[in-house]
Specification:
alpha+beta; D-amino Acid Aminotransferase, Chain A, domain 1; single chain; 38 strands; 6 domains; globular; Dna Ligase, domain 1; about 30% helix; Rossmann fold
Length: about 650
C-alpha cells in the first residue's frame, strides 16, 4: 500500500480522496493555487504544496508543477480526481518515468478512450452499439454541411478531446451550423487545447445512462450497474440517480456486457465509466468512456456499499479485486444533486463571492454531503461553480426523493446565488417523480426559464408561516407574554395582498386564509433562519430571513420576499407611488462575472437583434452575449482579456 498520495485536484473531489486515503492510513498531499491557499482541501490534507497562480493553465493544468510537487514531497502515488489532468496520458507517462504511480488506467487506455473519434472506432470493433455519424474530425464548414445533411438534423457537434459539456452544440438546422461549429471549436481549443470536433446524429428525447466498470491488473473486469444522468443544463449534469427508472434487468445486463467488453479491448484497469445515450424504449448507443472517477460516483457507492476511491487505490497498488461480478449486490435507490454557484433565474449564470452563510443538512445513513467549501470561504471566477454534492438514499425511488427534498430544505447558502431552489423544484415536479426523464427535461419543463415565485400550493405554506413569524416578532418587540386572541394581517406576496386572521393556540397559531383554517405549530424563535414546524400535522421546513419589514422565504422550489402589514398599513401602502425601473435598452450588460474572450464588433457598427457581440468566459464555460435589438454601437467599454463583473456595462448603443 502507498505511504503518501498527492491529490492533483481541488474542491470537493480532493476532500473526497483525502477522506478515503486517511481511512486507509495513507498520508495525503494537497496542491493549491493562489486562489486556493485557504481552501478546504488544503486544510484537510496532511501536507500541501503551492503550484502556481490562480488560472488553471498555470496551476492545476500545469503538469510540470505537479510533478515537481510529487517528487519534492516524496509522494509515491498521484490521484487525479476528475477534470484537470485526470485523463491526460502524458501526465500518467511522466509520473511513471519518475517511478510515481498514477492512480488510474494506463496511458494507452487514456489515449484510446480520451479521443472520442478513436474511442468510437474501438467501440465498434468491440461490438458496442454506436450512434450514426462521421468517424473522423471535421474542420471544413462545407464538409460539416455535407455530413449533417446526410445524417439529418438535428445533429450534435462534439469535441474530439472533450467532456463535461465543453465544445458541444446541438444544431437543429443548417442555418445555425456555421455559428455552432465555430463556437464549439473555439471552446474545445480553450478547454482542451484541441479544436477538433466531429458530428453525430442527435437522438430525440434522449436519456443519459452510464455504466460503472471496475478492472484490476489480473484480467478481472466487472460492472456495478447503471446511473441515469439525464437532468442536465448546458449539457452538464445536475441530478443523477442509481439505478435508472428506465432500465430493466435485461437491458442492464446487455449494457454491462458491452461496457466490460470495451474495457477489455483497451486493457483497462481502475474505475471507469462507459456512457450511453438511450431512447425512451431503452435502445442504447455508446457515447464515450470516461477513464476516471465520475462526479456522480457516490450514488453507485450508496447502492453497492463499495468505496470506489478505495477500489482505485487498491487496484493501483497491485491488489486483485476481492469480489466477482456475481458477488456485486445492489439495493435501494440513491440520488445526487449538484449544488452550483449560479443563478437559475438568469439562465444559470455563474455567481461569485463570499459564503456568508454555509450550513449543510445533518448527515446520517441516508444523507451524504461531499463539499470543498466552508462558511466564510470565497467562490472565485477561476474554477467550476460546483459548491457541493448532496446525496440521498432510500429503500426505493420515492424514499430517496423524499430524503433529498428534506435535506434540501435544511441546506443554507447565503452570500452568492445558487440553485438549491431549482433542485427542489425539479425533484417536486410530477414528471420527475414519474421517472419520465430526458436530457431536454429542463428546457421542456421550464420553457420560459425558471422563476421561483410561489404558486398557490406554496402560498398555503408561505403565507401562514409568514403570519406566524410576524406575530412572534411583534410580541418580542412589545415584550408581550399574553396570548393574542385575534390579529388581522395583510400579507403581500407575488405583488398581491392576502388577508389572514390568526389567533394563538398552544405552541402555535390558528390561521384563517382564503376560507381555509390552518393549524401551525412550531418552536421557532426570532433570530432562527430555519422555520421547523407543522402545518395541519404535516412537517414543514421553511428558510427565512427577516429584513426590516420584509421576510425572505424559501420552500420546496420557491422563494420570495413577503411583507406582513396591518390592514391600515396595507391600505396606505397601496397608495404609494411605484418606482419605475431604469431603461437599460441602450446597454449590453454582462449577466455574469468572467473574462472577455472576444469582441466581434466595433464602434459605429450596425448590429441586428440576435447578432453575437461578445464572448465572456465564466467558470470554464463560454457565454455568447447577443444584441437584443437592432442598434448602432456607440461605445465599447471593455477590451479582450478584461475581467467583468455581473451587471457591468460592456457596450452602449445609440
Amino acid at each position: 500500500m502507498f505511504k503518501k498520495i498527492l491529490i492533483a485536484n481541488r474542491g470537493e473531489i480532493a476532500c473526497r480522496v483525502i477522506r478515503t486515503a486517511k481511512s486507509l492510513g495513507i498520508g495525503t498531499l494537497a496542491v493549491y493555487s493562489d486562489a486556493d491557499k485557504d481552501a478546504l482541501h488544503v486544510r484537510e490534507a496532511d501536507e500541501s504544496f503551492y503550484i502556481g497562480p490562480s488560472p488553471v493553465s498555470q496551476s492545476y493544468l500545469n503538469l510540470e508543477s505537479i510533478i515537481i510537487a510529487a517528487c519534492e514531497m516524496r509522494a509515491d502515488a498521484v490521484h487525479p480526481g476528475y477534470g484537470f489532468l485526470s485523463e491526460n496520458a502524458e501526465f500518467a507517462e511522466r509520473l511513471g518515468a519518475e517511478k510515481i504511480c498514477f492512480i488510474g488506467p494506463s496511458p494507452s487506455a487514456i489515449s484510446s478512450m480520451g479521443d472520442k473519434i478513436e474511442a468510437k472506432k474501438v467501440a465498434i470493433a468491440a461490438g458496442v452499439n454506436t450512434i450514426p455519424g462521421c468517424g473522423e474530425a471535421v474542420f471544413d464548414l462545407q464538409d460539416a454541411k455535407d455530413i449533417a445533411g446526410e445524417i439529418g438534423y438535428p445533429v450534435m457537434i462534439k469535441a474530439a478531446a472533450g467532456g463535461g459539456g465543453k465544445g458541444m452544440r446541438i444544431v437543429n438546422s443548417k442555418e445555425l451550423l456555421e455559428e455552432c461549429m465555430t463556437s464549439a471549436m473555439h471552446e474545445a481549443e480553450q478547454a482542451f487545447g484541441d479544436e477538433r470536433v466531429f458530428i453525430e446524429k442527435f437522438i430525440n428525447e434522449p436519456r443519459h445512462i452510464e455504466i460503472q466498470v471496475l478492472a484490476d491488473n489480473f484480467g478481472n473486469v466487472i460492472h456495478l450497474g447503471e446511473r441515469e444522468c439525464s437532468i442536465q443544463r448546458r449539457h452538464q449534469k445536475i441530478i443523477e440517480e442509481a439505478p435508472s427508472p428506465l432500465i430493466n434487468e435485461k437491458t442492464r445486463k446487455a449494457m454491462g456486457i458491452q461496457s466490460c467488453a470495451l474495457a477489455r479491448a483497451v486493457n483497462y484497469t481502475s474505475v471507469g465509466t462507459v456512457e450511453f445515450v438511450a431512447d425512451q424504449q431503452g435502445n442504447f448507443f455508446f457515447l464515450e468512456m470516461n477513464t476516471r472517477l465520475q462526479v456522480e460516483h457516490p450514488v453507485t457507492e450508496f447502492i453497492t456499499g463499495l468505496d470506489l476511491v478505495e477500489q482505485q487505490i487498491r487496484v493501483a497498488s497491485g491488489e486483485e479485486l476481492s469480489f466477482s461480478q456475481e458477488e456485486v449486490k445492489r439495493s435501494g435507490w440513491s440520488i445526487e444533486c449538484r449544488l452550483y454557484a449560479e443563478d437559475p433565474e438568469r439562465g444559470f449564470m455563474p455567481s461569485t463571492g463570499r459564503l456568508s452563510r454555509y450550513q449543510e443538512p445533518a448527515k446520517n445513513e441516508n444523507i451524504r454531503v461531499d463539499t470543498g467549501v466552508y462558511e466564510g470561504g470565497e467562490i472565485t471566477v477561476f474554477y467550476d461553480p460546483m459548491i457541493s454534492k448532496l446525496i440521498s438514499y432510500g429503500k426505493d425511488r420515492v424514499s430517496a426523493i423524499d430524503s433529498m427534498l428534506s435535506a434540501l430544505d435544511y441546506y443554507q447558502v447565503h452570500g452568492i446565488s445558487h440553485n438549491l431552489t431549482f433542485l427542489s423544484s425539479i425533484l417536486s415536479s410530477s414528471r420527475f417523480i414519474s421517472g419520465n426523464l430526458s436530457t431536454s427535461f429542463i428546457e421542456e419543463e421550464y420553457p420560459r426559464g425558471f422563476f421561483a415565485s410561489p404558486n398557490k400550493n406554496a402560498l398555503e405554506v408561505i403565507i401562514p408561516t409568514a403570519a406566524f413569524v410576524q406575530l412572534k416578532l411583534k410580541k418580542r418587540r412589545a415584550r408581550m407574554c399574553k396570548p393574542v386572541t385575534l390579529c388581522n394581517y395583510m400579507v403581500l406576496a407575488n405583488r398581491e395582498y392576502y388577508p389572514i386572521s390568526i389567533s394563538e393556540i398552544d405552541n402555535g397559531i390558528e390561521a384563517t386564509y382564503e376560507e381555509r383554517t390552518f393549524i401551525i405549530k412550531s418552536n421557532w424563535r426570532p433570530g432562527n433562519e430555519v422555520f421547523c414546524g407543522e402545518i395541519d400535522n404535516i412537517p414543514v421546513v421553511v428558510q427565512l430571513a427577516v429584513r426590516g419589514t420584509d421576510i425572505w422565504m424559501s420552500w420546496r422550489g420557491t422563494s420570495t420576499t413577503v411583507t406582513v402589514r396591518s390592514e391600515r398599513a396595507a391600505e396606505f401602502a397601496l397608495n404609494m407611488p411605484i418606482k419605475e425601473s431604469a431603461d437599460l435598452s441602450n446597454f449590453l450588460i454582462s449577466p455574469m462575472p468572467g473574462l472577455v474572450v472576444s469582441i466581434s464588433i466595433q464602434v459605429g457598427d450596425q448590429v441586428r437583434a440576435g447578432q453575437p457581440l461578445v464572448i465572456v468566459d465564466a467558470m470554464k464555460m463560454e457565454n455568447v452575449l447577443r444584441a437584443e435589438r437592432d442598434a448602432i454601437v456607440s461605445k465599447i467599454m471593455v477590451s479582450e482579456g478584461d475581467s467583468v463583473a455581473v451587471d457591468q456595462v460592456i457596450i452602449e448603443f445609440n
